[in-house]
């Protein structure tokens, strides 16, 4: 079972998210919180796998709470978890801030129920999910910063040819299973390659790999 912590300052919205998650056969809500400070404390007590985090909340907002959860997991003061940020506001500043804080995903609250559940499962697997409208703008933000050919070659030299292939397919938005099918290797092998890429590039997750790929010319718009 995927253990989920739901964080939202609006009782009705929080209750709705709890109902959706608890109705899924592979998930259970282990705790609720009405602000970011409560979320961090709840995670210490209940050890959720995935946190559904609202952005605009009193006391401590969702961006700062995400940062505290991620930093706390690194220094051992908070049990590790993956954070999916949920918001009513499709604003660039929230998208960038959430991803910089360490969120594994960004989703709008008006997303269909199946997308919310899919986001929880995706984050739990260690992958990242970003609302389609936000993805388009993220790429638009990154593309003007692409380096010249020399910079691309220097970046590519850090990885093996197969690792570069995996990076390019990640940038296309493919899952591990889809990458495996494309390269005729097992999903476990793809996970190994992704792990090597993250280690070599000192990156946190797949979102950062995609951004790195565009910035360093290994992926094209």
TrEMBL record:
Keywords of this entry: DNA-binding, Phosphoprotein, Transcription, Transcription regulation
Domain (HTH luxR-type) ranges: 152-217
Protein's UniProt keywords contain Iron-sulfur: no
SMART domains in UniProt: HTH_LUXR (SM00421), REC (SM00448)
Modified residues (4-aspartylphosphate): 54
Superkingdom classification of source: Bacteria
CDD domains associated with the record: LuxR_C_like, REC_NarL-like
Matching InterPro entries: CheY-like_superfamily, NreC/VraR/RcsB-like_REC, Sig_transdc_resp-reg_C-effctor, Sig_transdc_resp-reg_receiver, Tscrpt_reg_LuxR_C, WalR-like
Pfam families: GerE, Response_reg
Domain Response regulatory, residue spans: 3-124
Protein name as it appears in the record: Response regulator transcription factor
Organism: Isoptericola hypogeus
């Amino acid at each position: 079972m995927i253990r989920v912590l739901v964080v939202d300052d609006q009782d009705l919205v929080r209750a709705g998210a709890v109902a959706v998650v608890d109705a899924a056969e592979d998930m259970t809500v282990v705790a609720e919180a009405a602000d970011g400070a409560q979320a961090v404390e709840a995670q210490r007590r209940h050890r959720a796998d995935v946190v559904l985090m609202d952005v605009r909340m009193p006391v401590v907002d969702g961006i700062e709470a995400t940062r505290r959860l991620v930093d706390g997991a690194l220094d051992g003061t908070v049990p590790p978890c993956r954070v999916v940020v949920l918001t009513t506001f499709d604003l660039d500043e929230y998208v960038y801030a959430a991803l910089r804080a360490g969120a594994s995903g960004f989703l709008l609250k008006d997303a269909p129920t199946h997308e919310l559940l899919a986001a929880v499962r995706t984050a739990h697997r260690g992958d990242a999910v970003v609302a389609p409208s936000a993805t388009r703008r993220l790429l638009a933000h990154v593309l003007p910063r692409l380096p010249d050919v020399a910079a691309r070659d220097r970046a590519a030299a850090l990885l093996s040819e197969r690792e570069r292939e995996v990076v390019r397919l990640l940038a296309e938005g493919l899952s591990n299973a889809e990458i495996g099918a494309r390269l005729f290797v097992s999903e476990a092998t793809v996970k190994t390659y992704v792990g090597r890429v993250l280690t070599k590039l000192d990156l946190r997750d797949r979102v950062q790999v995609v951004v790195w790929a565009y910035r360093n010319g290994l992926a094209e718009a």
